Predict the 3D structure of the following.
Amino acid sequence: MKFIKTREENLSENYLELHYDDIDSETAAVLERLRPALKYIEGTADGKRLTFPLSDIFYFETVDRKTFGYTADTCLEVKETLQNIIDDHKDAGFVRISKSCIANMYKIKRLQGDLNMRTLIYLKNDECLVMNRGYRAEFYDALEKLRGRKKNETHK
Amino acid sequence: MKLINRHNFISVVCISFTLIVCGKLILEKSSGFIDRFYAENIFTCLGVSVLATFILSLHYYLQRFPFIPVVIGQYLALIGFIFLGIWIMGHFTDTAPSAYKDMFVSVTIPYVIGAVVYYISFFLQIKRANEVFEDLE
């Protein structure tokens, strides 16, 4: 399988295009690896039904038993519960950081600790989320897995 | 994740008891001190190990509260129970005049060291995580 990487200036969004005659095992394996990152989620915003790639979602939050997903500029109400999102999309980099919030690890800019050992999570859109101490172990486990995956990708 | 749970409670008690007794024996040996209440003090060490492990195991259930009040509250509960134990024991057996002071020092020093190590490890973990996030960029 060939991999051709082309830089195009002024492209509004990066895209992958697959040319194939038959999906062989090698191609299927690549697609399988891409699947978590290329998942979509449906929801409503301002009464309109919208579909967003999961990778665009910065975090999910539950407010008054409703679940909202936040992209850079849209707040999307989704049907799934936080537990369903974690169960279905853990591989896409989502991790629980509090009882009412799930963050996308790929959208985290940096962490900061405060005196009371709460961890502040600064996202790439400059929003700040608070991680409870109870979810620290789960978060660092997910981060360790992410680092392992990244190392494997670098070696390949 | 519970660091101390019902499966490892006894193991944690045994390890902390062994460490406390070893520390006690090393200190006594190096200073040439002879403990007149050897048996009583060994059982006190066991009691302190069980009590401290139990109080620290409650930390998991208190994670939604701010760390500093929790750690101070746990310390006060621990030292309170120990002083209560000394007071009760004082009704049945002789206790050293410096019993309260000795137990205060014996509990406070390891507790403060443990809390500081825990606190520093928290910030080191954040530093390492930030390095990973920088690599991911």
